[in-house]
Amino acid sequence: MEIPKTAFEWRRPGTVLPVETFTHELAQKRHPFDPEKLSVLIENRMAGYLYQPSPNHIRNVIVSGEISAQDADYLHELLSQLGPWLLKHFLFFSGVTPRELANAMIVSQVTRRRVTIWMNQYSNAL
């Protein structure tokens, strides 16, 4: 019996589309920044990590696009752990646009397929 190619599709790495394709108005929408809710979302997933940037620092790094190697490693771990549902909450609480988040995911090399598929829904390339 042959296993269909899509049976384990979610296990394969995915890629976020280029930032230039995130031009739709929804990709530019910025929700209000809520550091308390963002902190709760982050602390539950990153409890054992020595490097614990504040929610303000995380937001500023993503918005500015100037992501250091240490911040990229942190964002990779954090964003890879969040599924689409929690990534939606991260987007709403962090006060960043989907385009800025896509850039952060590209720089930090997030390849979790479900996360990248969710992120790519904001791209015009689909």
Cα shape: globular
Counting DSSP H or I runs of 4 or more residues, the number of helices is: 6
SSE order: HHHHHH
Gyration radius, in Å: 15 Å
Helix content: 40-55%
Judged by helices, strands and strand pairing, the structural class is: mainly alpha
Beta content comes to under 5%
The total strand number stands at 0
End-to-end C-alpha gap: 33 Å
In round numbers, the mean pLDDT is 89
Regions with little confidence, pLDDT below 50 for 5+ residues: none
Verbal overview:
- The chain has a domain of 74 residues.
- 50% of the residues lie in helices and 0% in strands.
- It contains six helices and no strands.
Q: What is the topological layout?
A:
Elements (H helix, E strand, L loop, with lengths): L34 H11 L9 H10 L4 H13 L2 H11 L3 H10 L5 H8 L6
